[in-house]
Every structure is written in C-alpha cells, then in structure tokens.
Amino acid sequence: MDRTRTSKLSNLQESVIPIEPATRTFRIKVKENGNNVVRTVRRQQFPMTAAYAFTDYRSQGQTLPCVIVDIATPPSGGLNLFNLYVALSRSTGRHHIRLLRDFDATIFQKSHCEELLMEDERLEEQNRKTWEWWNEITCS
C-alpha cells in the first residue's frame, strides 16, 4: 500500500487497493446561436483499464506474446526464486516483458529454501533409480 497513491480506508484489508473516482474539470469553446461561448465541463470516472491477470502458478506451461510482470514484494506472503523464474520466463523473449513497478533486487541474490533443495535431490535420486531399473529390464 505504501507504493500506491491511494488513501488507506479504515476496515479495509491491507492487500485491497480501493479504486477512487478521478475528477477533471476543463473548459471548452462551443458555438451557441452564432456566438462563441466558453463552457466548463466536469468529468468524473473510475480510472480502470480492462486487463487479464493470473498468478505465476496459473501461468506455468504457458508462453505469452507480451507480459507485464509485478515482482514487487506482495502485501501478504512473499516471493522466492521459483516465483521469479516462472513470472519472468512466460514471454517469448526479453523484449516482450515489462515490469510493472520497482522491486527489491536483493531477492535475486537469495538461495532456494532448504525444503525445496531436499525435494530436488529426492527427485533426482528417484530419476536415477528409474533410469537404472528401465535399462535393466530393457537390456535383459
């Protein structure tokens, strides 16, 4: 929330960003009965853009022509190297990725959590055993 220009509303969850109407007043010249008249126009609208978004988990396995990625630290939870890899590898190339806002660059210097490294080692061992078993039964 500290990176947005919106006001904090009471009784609103930390991760919810309110959409506030934007008001703009401007003057226009119009012809009325052959005379130039200046009118004041006041426009009020909600600053929204139609878009489609999904999580890094949902984007796995997809290749998208262009992506806008938000790798800033989320208000709740956190990011790890896996999240970053998935988010940044969804487009067809680096020229088709745009970053939504500033981010903490130190996240790229962190290592994977110990549980993930242990699971990777376990899967590698299972892969090795499976290959040995397969070679044993097909070469016999």
What would a concise description of this structure say?
The protein is α+β, with helices and mostly antiparallel strands and 140 residues long.
Topology at a glance:
Blueprint: E1 22-32, E2 35-45, H1 56-59, E3 67-69, H2 81-88, E4 97-99, H3 114-139
Parallel strand pairs: 3-4
Antiparallel strand pairs: 1-2
How is this structure best described in words?
The protein has helices spanning 56-59, 81-88, 114-139, and strands spanning 22-32, 35-45, 67-69, 97-99. Strand 3, helix 2 (81-88) and strand 4 (97-99) form a beta-alpha-beta unit. The protein is α+β, with helices and mostly antiparallel strands. The strands form two sheets. Strands 1-2 form a two-stranded antiparallel ribbon. Strands 3-4 form a two-stranded parallel sheet. The mean pLDDT is 85. The radius of gyration is 26 Å and the shape is elongated.
Q: Features of this protein?
A:
two-stranded parallel sheet; 20% strand; elongated; 140 residues; alpha+beta
Which sheet architecture does the biggest sheet show? 2 strands, antiparallel
Task: Determine the fraction of residues in helical runs and give it as a percent range.
Answer: 25-40%
Structural class: alpha+beta
Strand order of the largest sheet: 1-2
Which series of helices and strands comes N to C?
EEHEHEH
Morphology call: elongated
Q: What distance lies between the first and last C-alpha atoms, to the nearest angstrom?
A: 64 Å
Oligomer: single chain
**Rounded mean pLDDT score:** 85
Total number of strands: 4
Instruction: List low-pLDDT spans.
Output: none
Radius of gyration: 26 Å
Strand content: 15-25%
Q: In DSSP terms, counting alpha (H) and pi (I) runs of 4 or more, how many helices? A: 3
